[in-house]
Amino acid sequence: MERHIMHENAPPVLRRDEGAVAILTLNRPASRNSLSTGMLAALQAALDEVAADRDIRAVVLAAEGPAFSAGHDLKEVTAHRADADGGAAFFAGIMAACGTVMQAVVALPQPVVAAVQGIATAAGCQLAASCDLVVASTTAKFCTPGVDIGLFCSTPGVALARAVPRKSAMEMLLLGEMIPAGEAQRMGLVNRVMPPEAVLPTALALAQQIASRSAVAVQLGKRGFNAQQAMPLAEAYAAAGAVMVENLLAEDAAEGIGAFVAKRRPEWQHR
Beta strands of 171-253 (E only): which ranges? Predict the structure, then answer.
């Protein structure tokens, strides 16, 4: 089933469901899937729709064309320099909207697997880094090139700092160089590197594997993992322990443990 998130001749984001997996596809290949105000609004709408859909247990985020996303639409940004305030209000608005979308990816109850078939630069790299898993093409490259145009990639740095070691993040941010998929995998930004034709099928297979598990366990786990990352060690263990208790009290935990003891396959109720 395919649903268009925005009712226009060329929807910025497409949705297609494969069982319990929603495939969201950025659909502005001519502009290299830049994160314009329209694209951000469409992606936010798509994420909100998926978050409320109890039948969806995992998400694949893909893109049409040779680029996953080239980041912010610099033509749109430049046009607003003619505003009375020099673009200040627009710049603040677009940064806020982009930050909200990135946080929505992280906060989405369902895990998100990025299928990166081409370049992911600046805020496009930020989007990939915000996903829970990343499958990249052998031809994909990642970059935060803001320093090349006098604009340090500060907001992409937020996602990078949470995805890769500090030195790797700073190298990308300070040098602005293209990072091949293999190197991105070594630094921890990418989980798997595949031939171009295998990127989307691999991302879908991973999402389907996730979707085959108990939704309550996976969703509690994602939320708890993200929450504890920002905590000191003792607080992190306390928070994770509380998540474990909540999970143990769920019906699916009783079913899963019972099935393991009885040596049978569990039957998830997703509650």
Answer: 179-180, 192-194
Q: Report the chain's mean pLDDT, rounded to a whole number.
A: 95
Residue 167's CB is within 10 A of a number of other CB atoms, namely: 9
227 by DSSP, 3-state: which?
Answer: helix
Q: For residue 149, how far is the Cα from the chain centroid? A: 26
- What pTM was estimated for this model as a whole? 0.94
Crossing angle of helices 154-161/123-130, nearest 10°?
A: 20
pLDDT, tens digit, 9 for 90 and up, residues 238-258: 999 999 999 999 999 999 999
Which of 257, 57, 33 is CA-nearest to residue 127? 33
Cα–Cα dist 207/214, whole Å: 13
Topology of the domain covering 215-262: Lyase 2-enoyl-coa Hydratase; Chain  A, domain 2 (1.10.12)
The answer to whether domain 2-211 has CATH 1.10.3720.10 is: no
Pick from 112, 125, 97, 81: which is nearest to 37 by CA? Answer: 97
Q: Of all residues in the chain, what percent are helix, strand and coil, respectively (each to 5)?
A: 55, 15, 30
48: amino acid identity, one letter: D
Is pLDDT at 57 greater than 90 in this prediction? yes
Q: List pLDDT tens digits, range 88-134.
A: 999 999 999 999 999 999 999 999 999 999 999 999 999 999 999 99
